[in-house]
Amino acid sequence: MAKEFKIAPSILSADFARLGEEVESVIAAGADFVHFDVMDNHYVPNLTFGSVICKSLRDFGIEAPIDVHLMVQPVDRLIADFAEAGATYISFHPEASEDIGATLDLIRSNDCLPGLAINPATPLSYVEEYLDQIEIITMMSVNPGFAGQSFIPEVLDKLTETRAMIEKSGRKVLLEIDGGVKANNIGDIASYGADVFVSGSGIFGTDNYRDTIDEMRQNLAPHLNQ
């Protein structure tokens, strides 16, 4: 069965003075998801935004899936807020939860699709243990907390190993890569098993969103039938 690749621009790199128009433009240019990098100045050393931004985009008319990546601790308090605001996927870092299974259940009970976010140094044992309870895995290819970082190539082997786990399970779990993804490396990353690609400055930092996303699609095309 042919793969289907998803491109998820991270609004962390968008122009917040005109966020609604920015997201509308990037979806019109061919993006699939809207990615939220939620940071709390506690789990990571930066502070971004909360659920009100999610609600604002839904109120603006954005209908694309919203992929919320919680880099916060504790995580449970924010789940209902983002679910009510219109989130589609909610992922969190296992190290930030007191009870990973309960947090996954909480996300699902709020009618969102649960996922785990895996840092470069986080073992894949978390994925193996909870694979039957998640719908998306966000593999971090940078250390979380800042936009515009360079891709960490050592993560590629973790992608391959995680893809093998997914295939063995027989479940249709999305494998997302987040950090340092650009048009010139997206094809190589795809060859290691990713099927959802988060890109912040790699899209919003370019002059023409459609041209950039078209180039990404062209570089992904050879990997569709792998």
Describe the structure in brief:
The chain has 226 residues and is α/β, with parallel strands linked by helices.
How would you characterize this protein structure?
The protein is an alpha/beta fold. The chain has a single domain, classed as TIM Barrel, CATH 3.20.20.70. It contains nine helices and eight strands. The chain has an eight-stranded parallel β-sheet. Helix 2 runs parallel beside helix 3. The radius of gyration is 16 Å and the shape is globular. It starts with 5 loop residues before the first strand and ends in a 6-residue tail after the last helix. 42% of the residues are buried.
Descriptors:
alpha/beta, 18% strand, 8-stranded parallel β-sheet, 226 residues, TIM Barrel, 9 helices
**What is the terminal separation in angstroms?**
9 Å
How many strand units? 8
What's the average pLDDT?
95
Main sheet properties: 8 strands, parallel
* CATH classification, class level: Alpha Beta
Instruction: Give the uncertain stretches in residue-range form.
Output: none
Helical content stands at 25-40%
User: In total, how many domains does the architecture comprise?
Assistant: 1
CATH homologous superfamily identity? Aldolase class I
Number of helices: 9
> Strand sequence of the main sheet, in spatial order?
1-8-7-6-5-4-3-2
Order of helices and strands: EHEHEHEHEHEHEHEHH
Shape: globular
Strand content: 15-25%
CATH topology: TIM Barrel
Provide the CATH architecture.
Alpha-Beta Barrel
Oligomerization category of the chains in this entry: single chain
Radius of gyration based on Cα positions? 16 Å
Secondary-structure-derived class: alpha/beta
